[in-house]
Amino acid sequence: MIHLMLDYLSKNFNVYLNALLTHIGISLIVMLIGIVIAIPFGVVCAKYVKLSESILGLFNLLRLIPSLAVLIVLMPVLGTGLVPAVIALTFLAFPAILINTCIGFTGINPSVIEAAKGMGMSKQRILFTIEFPLAFPMIITGIRTAAVEVIASATLAAYIGSGGLGDLIIIGLSLPSTAILLVGGLSVAILSIITDVILSITQKRLTKFI
Amino acid sequence: MTNIALELVNITKKFAHAETNSVTGVSLTINEGDFVTILGTSGSGKTTLLKMVNRIYESTSGDIFFYGENIKKLKVEDYRRKIGYVIQQIGLFPHMTVEQNIATVPKILHWNKEKINARVDELLKLVGLGDEHYKKRYPKQLSGGQQQRIGLARAMAADPQLMLMDEPFGAIDAITRQNLQDELINIQKKLNKTILFVTHDINEAFKLGDKIIIMDKGEVQQFDTPYNILFHPANDFVKQLIETENIINRLKVLRVENFVQPLTQPTKLADGVIHNDKFLDDVLAKFFETGKKRLVVIDDQEEPIGEISWDQFIQLKKIQDNVVRLDVQKKNIRRVNDHD
């Protein structure tokens, strides 16, 4: 089987590389958009307790909807291709990052904030030099969860024509060719693992104070 | 003439959903260099009063003047940077090293690196953690007592004119607490800081304070020297408060310097001497040791500055007798009530 897989790879290396890079590209863009939008919402969520309950509830609910369902539901609205795939996947990245940011902020020991205030630190300074670093372990845990979810779901996005490693799986299934299927599936799995390892190392580096 | 560091004028605080005031009509003046303890039970308003001074809480009515300036007219961040703030929960920044924690305010004030480093070293030495290896540690690598030493160092980093301390040693074991108290007394003597120190521990209040604010139900019951509080309690509440401790315990926290009387006769050091930074239980021991009725009080330079006499102790004894009598009365009253 490994022989067949290597054979496919050597003959279609450009196709494979293209699928892999597309997959990584989609995931990266989705994660960047997700981080940029979800973190500020998470902060707002932590600062306004009344808001937080409804926001957290809503996103926990969103989380329950299967990825494929989100993609299919959005297809009539957004059409097919790369852009709708990115938008749909961003919805998937959102809850984990937002919820963890919120928990990270609300979990900070209030006496630390009181001490900071008492020393004459401005709200902005407290936010960036105290709260963010302290919430970071939780935030990056959220990012890890979201990243794995996005990389996996990006496979499904191939169904609405975004390209990526999902294409190999679809081809493998329809030919059918177990070798191509495995090349696609294993690549996604390895990509997920590598991403998680990188993020976990980052997390350890930046949170040695715990 | 001494400067007035802090003046509170008719300060009242009522929290939004509370039925009663937490603090009512407090007016008092604190001189520069005073070590003032605020003593009261939980719910007495002592912490609320302290937190209005650095505007963690805003007073509902009344004004606070810091060196003559109304603090409501000052920019709150700038004002707080002139005040050291130490709290029971310590509140060190867990993601910063000891060094970074202490450097927080100097960095905000844009001191240069050499000045900050020198200051950090100086402060660590002052709080007894001068070893080089402490600087790079994170708070969780320190014991509770060590953490609060860093908390103290951090609060003093920019040489604040006023220190606010909210039960700073409340969560620290008894032995370490005693050491910290002794060191705080030394630090205050060395640097002559104005300190407002909240505590619910009567011994701590008497041991540390040049003056004590006794609070109950949001009002100041008495604001006076430990000596005057013991010998001239302002009302029944204060009387009961000081009665709860037995006399030997009370002697342990009363500093000789608060009891020094002018010399009544020429000094003969052979009469027996006592250092002015000792406590009254040491004096009592000295009386027994020497059999004298009078001790000459000397200062750090071994110069005689006054005396302390057996008669002053007799006065303390009288108070104690009153206490016993009062206790008996109270018990009798209770007994009568029980029969009803």
TrEMBL record, chain A:
Domain ABC transmembrane type-1: 20-199
One cellular component (GO) term of this entry: plasma membrane
Subcellular compartments: Cell membrane; Membrane
Keyword Transport attributed: yes
Database matches in InterPro entries: ABC_transp_perm/SBD, MetI-like, MetI-like_sf
CDD domains linked: TM_PBP2
Protein name according to UniProt: Glycine/betaine ABC transporter permease
Membrane topology recorded in Swiss-Prot or TrEMBL: Multi-pass membrane protein
Keywords: Membrane, Transmembrane, Transmembrane helix, Transport
Protein's organism: Sporolactobacillus laevolacticus DSM 442
Assigned protein family: Belongs to the binding-protein-dependent transport system permease family.
GO-annotated biological processes: glycine betaine transport; transmembrane transport
Segments traversing the membrane: 20-46, 58-79, 85-113, 134-160
From TrEMBL, chain B:
Reactions this protein catalyses: a quaternary ammonium(out) + ATP + H2O = a quaternary ammonium(in) + ADP + phosphate + H(+)
EC primary class: translocase
Known EC number: 7.6.2.9
Alphabetic keyword roster: ATP-binding, Nucleotide-binding, Transport
SMART domains: AAA
InterPro entries per the UniProt record, alphabetical: AAA+_ATPase, ABC_transporter-like_ATP-bd, ABC_transporter-like_CS, P-loop_NTPase
Taxonomic path: Bacteria, Bacillati, Bacillota, Bacilli, Bacillales
Pfam families reported in the protein's UniProt record: ABC_tran
Subunit structure and binding partners: The complex is composed of two ATP-binding proteins (OpuCA), two transmembrane proteins (OpuCB and OpuCD) and a solute-binding protein (OpuCC).
Name of the molecule in the record: Carnitine transport ATP-binding protein OpuCA
An example Gene Ontology molecular-function term: ATP hydrolysis activity
Domain of life of the source: Bacteria
Residue ranges of domain ABC transporter in the record: 6-242
Recorded family membership: Belongs to the ABC transporter superfamily.
